[in-house]
Design a protein that fits this description.
Layout lengths: L1 E6 L9 H17 L3 E6 L6 H6 L4 E5 L9 H15 L2 E6 L2 H14 L2 E6 L1 E5 L2 E8 L4 E5 L6 E5 L16 E4 L30 E5 L9 H11 L2 E4 L1 H5 L20 E5 L5 H4 L7 E6 L12 E4 L2 H16 L2
Parallel strand pairs: 1-2, 1-4, 2-3, 3-10, 4-9, 5-9, 11-12, 11-13, 13-14, 14-15
Antiparallel strand pairs: 6-7, 7-8
Helix pairs in contact: 3-4, 5-8
Length: 325
C-alpha cells in the first residue's frame, strides 16, 4: 500500500514543517506496509520537490498551475486528485491546517475514499492502517480504520515526527500537466498574522496559556515574558479571549487552534473539554490552578495547586537565572 503526502507551502527549498512531519510518519509506515512514499508538491511547493525526497519521499509528483496561486480548496483538491489517480490505492495524508480541513473532505469525496479527521496517530495494524483521533471533546481516543481501498487521513500538526534530511537522497521527480478550472474563490485582501517576534502558536515547542483565573489582561505580560525566555508562544482559553484580554489568534481549543507542543503550561485554566480538545496531545502538560478540583489536573502530567501570583514570579526568576537574562 502506497502512502501519498499532500504538500503545499514551504520556504522555496524545504517543504513546510507540517509536510516534513507527514513525510517522516509516511516513511515509517511504508517500512511496515511495504509501499512507496509519494509526495504531492502542489502550487508553490513545487520548488520544494527535491526537499521532499530528502525528507523521505521515494517519488514526487508536481502539480503547478495558475489556479493554485491562491489557497483555493477546490483547486487544490482537484490537483491532489490527479496525483492520487497516479498513485493508485493508497493512504493519503493531508496536513491538518486551515487549508487541509477544506481540502481533505473534498478529496475524499472525489476518491470515494473513507476519511478520518484530526488524527493524532496512524499505525499499521493487522495488515491495515488504523487512525487514532480524539472524541467527546478529547475525553477519549477512538481507533478507526477505513473500509475503502484508498483512505484519507487529516493529521494534526506535530502528531508525527520528521526525519533528519538525507542530502542527495535519490528519488523520482515528475511534473504533471493538468487542466484546472479557475477557482471560484477570489482573494480580496491578505493580512499577515502578528506574532510579536514569537513563533507561530501551532509551531511553538512551548505554549504558555492563560485563562479566566488570571483575572484580566495584565498577567498575560508575564506569560509573554515566559514564552520569550523559552522560545515559545502565548495561548489562551476561550474565556480569556471572550473577555477581551487577548486577541482571538491566541485561542487554543475546539473552536480555536490545536497545538501539540513539547511543553504546555496552563495558568488559571479550569480545563473545560473544549479547551482540552485543542491541547491534549501536548507531550508534557503543566497546570497551575488554585482549585485542586479543577478538571485540568485530570490531563496534566504535573499539577501545581496554588495562586499563579505566587508561583509564576519564582518561576520567571529561575528562568532568568538559567538564561542569564
Amino acid at each position: 500500500m502506497n502512502i501519498v503526502v499532500i504538500g503545499w507551502g514551504g520556504d522555496g527549498h524545504a517543504p513546510s514543517a507540517a509536510v516534513r512531519e507527514l513525510l517522516g510518519g509516511a516513511r515509517r509506515l511504508a517500512q511496515q506496509s511495504g509501499g512507496q512514499v509519494i509526495g504531492a508538491a502542489l502550487g508553490g511547493a513545487a520548488k520544494a520537490a527535491t526537499g521532499m525526497i530528502e525528507y523521505g519521499a521515494d517519488r514526487v509528483l508536481i502539480v503547478d498551475h495558475p489556479a493554485l496561486a491562491e489557497l483555493d480548496a477546490e483547486a487544490y483538491a482537484a490537483a491532489a486528485h490527479v496525483v492520487c489517480d497516479q498513485a493508485g490505492d493508497a493512504l493519503v495524508l493531508v496536513p491538518g491546517d486551515r487549508l487541509g480541513w477544506e481540502v481533505a473532505p473534498r478529496l475524499a469525496h472525489r476518491l470515494a475514499a473513507g476519511l478520518v479527521t484530526d488524527c493524532l496517530a496512524v499505525d499499521w495494524e493487522g495488515g491495515r492502517f488504523v487512525m487514532t483521533k480524539p472524541v467527546y471533546g478529547g475525553k477519549a481516543m477512538a481507533k478507526l480504520a477505513a473500509r475503502t481501498a484508498t483512505q484519507v487521513a487529516l493529521v494534526r500538526a506535530r502528531a508525527m515526527e520528521p526525519l533528519e534530511p538525507q542530502t542527495g537522497r535519490a528519488g523520482d521527480v515528475e511534473a504533471l500537466n493538468v487542466n484546472l478550472s479557475p477557482g471560484r474563490v477570489k482573494l480580496l485582501e491578505r493580512k499577515q498574522e502578528e506574532t510579536q517576534g514569537q513563533v507561530r502558536l501551532e509551531d511553538a515547542p512551548v505554549v504558555v496559556s492563560g485563562g479566566r483565573g488570571l483575572g484580566g489582561p495584565e498577567p498575560f505580560r508575564m506569560l509573554e515574558e515566559i514564552a520569550q525566555l523559552v522560545g515559545g508562544a502565548v495561548g489562551a482559553s476561550l474565556a480569556a479571549v471572550d473577555a477581551g484580554w487577548i486577541s482571538p489568534q491566541h485561542q487554543v481549543g475546539q473552536t480555536g487552534k490545536s497545538v501539540a507542543p513539547d511543553l504546555y503550561i496552563a495558568v488559571g485554566i479550569s480545563g473545560a473539554s473544549q479547551h482540552v480538545a485543542g491541547m491534549s496531545n501536548s507531550k508534557t502538560i503543566v497546570a497551575i490552578n488554585k482549585d485542586p478540583e479543577a478538571p485540568i489536573f485530570r490531563v496534566a502530567h504535573i499539577g501545581v495547586v496554588g495562586d499563579y501570583k505566587e508561583v509564576l514570579p519564582a518561576f520567571v526568576a529561575e528562568l532568568r537565572k538559567i538564561k542569564g537574562a
